Amino acid sequence: MVLILCIGMGWIALLVAFVLGLSACNSFGTVRPSQAPASPGAGPPIAVVTTFSILADIARVVGGDRVIVANLVGPGQDTHTFQPSPSDAGALARADLTIEHGLGFDVWLEKLFVASGSRARRIVATAGIEPFRPEHRTDGAAQKVDEHDAEVDPHVWHDPRLVGQIALTIAEALSARDPANAATYRERANRYVTELNQLDAWIVTRVETVPPSRRALVTNHDSLGYFARRYGFRVVATVLGGVSTEASEPSAAAVAEVIRDIRSAAVPAIFAENVSNPRILARVAQEAGVRVAPPLYTDALDAPGGRADTYVKMMRYNVDVIVEALAAP
Ligand SMILES: [Zn+2]
Predict the structure, then answer these.
(1) In whole angstroms, how far apart are CA 157 and each of 53, 91, 149, 230?
(2) Is 60 exceeded by the pLDDT of residue 100?
(3) If you measure from the C-alpha of residue 30 to the centroid of ligand 1, how many angstroms do you get, rounded to a whole number?
């Protein structure tokens, strides 16, 4: 008798729970998505992994408080030569979405991603961007090479309009993961595109103060090709002679050639970079009789709180350094 009573009470409890559950579903409006859309902002934030600091900044701008971004290659670090650690695999294993740059910049991600067992969706930020293939410089002459043999330049972020494209790509990936907030991601990306267009217009105005004959760049590695193409500069020479910092030390002959190029182009200053060792560049500058400008932030942001800790601040800082170094007599 007692047993039957207990079973009966158990069923009543279950029934009460079911009715309460239904009413809870109705009050939150989340029974069927097709009937009642989830309220924007609902649900846990999206766990995003980015490969380097500039992508992390763009993802945070687009995602706002709907994303938690774990970034692999931090401020001031070199993505070309990055060596992942076991903790990086942990971040990938917990991720919902992984944003890589592509164009040969963060190729180390592939192995790390597989090793982590991550089930995150992977997107390539530069998908749909036509890559720039710089001329190869050999034996003192810039040579056009066959397009398929040419190095692809990954440094697209030095053209703010292409960063706008990346922001829109990220907005679409976040929208696919979290459709309830799609309008928010798209609105944030569009606002950012407006800001980037203003940045682009400001750079055009700043560059106009540099006489065209002085719009010439010499950097450690070939990082400013997109900047040069957009704003009418020539890349006169690069100390490491390629689009990556992985190159071994240049030969004495290559260094002599860079010095000849600097002298013949009559550039007043050459540019060190935050991600690569300026030792050889300083020697080149001394032998060529030119100044070394303050380091540019080419492949990574400044540490948080620094003068170039966001993409937009980085570009403004770089342009000020470039213009002041080249415009001055
Ligand atoms: Zn680089």
Answers:
(1) 12, 25, 23, 11
(2) yes
(3) 47
